[in-house]
Design brief:
heterodimer; A: Rossmann fold; N-(1-d-carboxylethyl)-l-norvaline Dehydrogenase, domain 2; 2 domains; 8-stranded mixed beta sheet; globular; B: 265 residues; Rossmann fold; 45% helix
Chain lengths: 292, 265
């Protein structure tokens, strides 16, 4: 089947990523079924999506009719059985292997035989998730970036058993959603979270070695390398705990490859609760005192 | 403005020469690119220096691919330049302190670090050696200001700060390409769109010169441990083949008529 004749997209999980993906799908003309176990989370997601879509209309990016049509294309459910009519499923549940495996095992029996089961995992193995189903050839990685409505990239990751047809269809669906897909193998961190590791780790090593302070590293990376943000301000934005977990997961999944070794300095920052912007304090102080 | 001698083996040196010339300095340059056929470069450099009809007050060195070549270049500069001349060494593949230890004019050596495209950078990293005379550091600072870059002092280290981060990202991208995780185009696209990098790491490596990137990584390995800074096998292979990037017409990508040819084996 091709992406054009695909009508209905299911999204599993209504957190930040799931609701963002559901919004993008609805705005791209797909009928969307958004699932979560928690009705409260679903209501909050619907409110958020409605707010963002109407705001896009207020700013003139879409017409008011288009915005209302997108909102009407969204339905929510707390029953996985509602996915019975979906041709394409995107799972954005919490990053826990057993949870995802159990979801995929159940979804495999619910969705039509032609449907694709995509996971938005950023750190787990697509192959391992696929192994919980009877049809691993239709399981694929579809990694959106946060926030999905704004970030153009989607990494399409082929697991060891994923069929070329599944990868191809996922690439087409990403394009239909207005995204730029790249194809990647099922390796820890895929492309971005793997190739970006040294950006943070090397910054942390420079700091640990006393070459200069974190603010100077950021400044040199911005004004010398012309990056939009330096490694320390970016860690503060992402959350030091999240960034540290990503480093750890790539390190462990790559059998302790030395160049991915996480930073003790960063671990101490996480342990001390300085997690970044979300708590008002990380490498920099936020709130009353803005960072330099 | 003063007479500046620029000696190097890649695009970084060429950029420094352009920068200095644009700032109104008299520039003499001696470039020795990896893909040129070289016959005892230090003898060529000696002949070149003896043939100069102006005396450089400042020499900027950026020999990055080979530490042996860097040593002979710096040694030759020390022998041939007037005693007062300032020697600004790129600390990308040797610390300023190590280079200062190679020469008699240790107090006149001051390090610096940056990478192409230098024209987009507003800052340059200023790296005093343990042996640097404070007056030399001050002159180095003034010289970089005159070339339009704001000097930011950092402690002496191999690889500088932002160049060290960038070459490691390039190396990681070279591992990813060599391991066939994705195509060169998709790796570069992913890093630009997924995490807002100003350019794709593979295209950036081609711009800097892959021999230069590998020279920096090997020096980092020597200084801080080869397990972390091991150059990717594909990077090594391309350098062995002389496919060092844009300057050679081919690196991770092929350049020329079709700019975006599918790169590598």
């Amino acid at each position: 089947m091709s992406a054009d004749c695909l009508q209905r997209i299911g999204v599993v999980g209504a957190g930040t990523m799931g609701s963002g993906i559901a919004q993008v799908a609805a705005q791209s003309g797909f009928d969307v079924v958004l699932y979560d176990i928690d009705d409260h989370i679903l209501r909050r997601a619907t409110d958020r999506i409605t707010h963002f879509v109407r705001r896009a209309a207020e700013k003139g990016r879409v017409t008011a009719d288009e915005a209302e049509a997108a909102i009407n294309r969204l339905q929510t459910t707390t029953a996985l059985e509602a996915f019975a009519g979906c041709d394409f499923l995107i799972e954005a549940a919490p990053e826990q292997l057993e949870l995802k495996q159990s979801l995929f095992n159940r979804l495999d029996c619910i969705v039509p035989v032609h449907a694709v089961l995509a996971t938005n995992t950023s750190t787990l193995s697509v192959t391992q998730i696929a192994s919980a189903t009877q049809h691993p050839e239709r399981v694929v990685g579809m990694h959106f970036f946060n926030p999905p409505p704004l970030m153009p990239l989607v990494e399409v990751a082929a697991g060891a058993m994923t069929s070329e047809e599944t990868v191809h269809l996922t690439v087409e669906v990403a394009k239909c959603m207005g995204k730029t897909p790249v194809r990647t193998q099922d390796v820890p961190g895929f492309i971005v979270n793997r190739v970006a590791r040294p950006f943070y780790l090397e910054g942390l090593r420079l700091l640990a070695q006393g070459v200069t302070d974190h603010a100077t590293v950021d400044r040199l990376v911005r004004e010398g390398g012309r990056f939009r943000m330096g490694p320390f301000e970016l860690m503060d934005l992402i959350g030091l705990d999240i960034n540290f977990a990503a480093s750890r997961s790539v390190y462990e999944a790559c059998f302790h490859e030395p160049r991915y070794r996480p930073s003790l300095l960063q671990q101490r920052m996480v342990e001390s609760g300085r997690l970044g912007r979300k708590v008002g304090r990380g490498w920099y102080e936020y709130g009353g005192e803005e960072k330099p | 403005m003063s007479t500046v001698l620029v000696v190097g083996d890649g695009p970084l040196a060429a950029e420094v020469a352009d920068l200095a010339a644009a700032a109104g300095h008299d520039v003499v340059s001696f470039f020795n690119y990896a893909q040129d056929i070289r016959v005892e470069p230090e003898i060529e450099l000696r002949l070149f220096l003896s043939g100069l009809n102006t005396v450089p007050e400042v020499a900027v060195e950026a020999v990055l691919a080979d530490r042996g070549d860097k040593w002979s270049t710096v040694h030759e500069l020390d022998t041939c330049l007037p005693p007062g001349a300032l020697l600004l060494t790129a600390t990308l593949n040797a610390s300023a302190t190590e280079v200062a230890g190679w020469v008699d004019r240790s107090d006149r050596v001051v390090g610096w670090a940056g990478l192409p495209p230098l024209e987009e950078a507003t800052v340059i990293e200023l790296v005093p050696a343990i042996q640097s005379d404070p007056e030399s550091v001050e002159q180095a600072r003034t010289w970089w200001q005159s070339a339009g870059k704001e000097p930011v002092p950092i402690a002496d280290t191999v690889g500088g700060v932002w160049p060290r981060i960038v070459v490691n990202v390039i190396n990681e991208a070279a591992f990813a390409l060599g391991d066939r995780i994705a195509s060169a185009e998709d790796i570069d696209l992913a890093m630009r769109l997924g995490t807002n990098y100003p350019r794709g790491p593979l295209a950036w490596g081609d711009l800097i010169g892959l021999d230069q990137v590998m020279g920096i990584l090997e020096a980092l390995g020597e200084a801080y441990g080869p397990d972390v800074y091991r150059p990717a096998p594909l990077l090594r292979q391309l350098v062995h083949a002389g496919l060092v990037g844009q300057l050679a017409g081919r690196g991770f990508y092929t350049y020329g008529e079709e700019e975006t040819d599918h790169g590598t084996p």
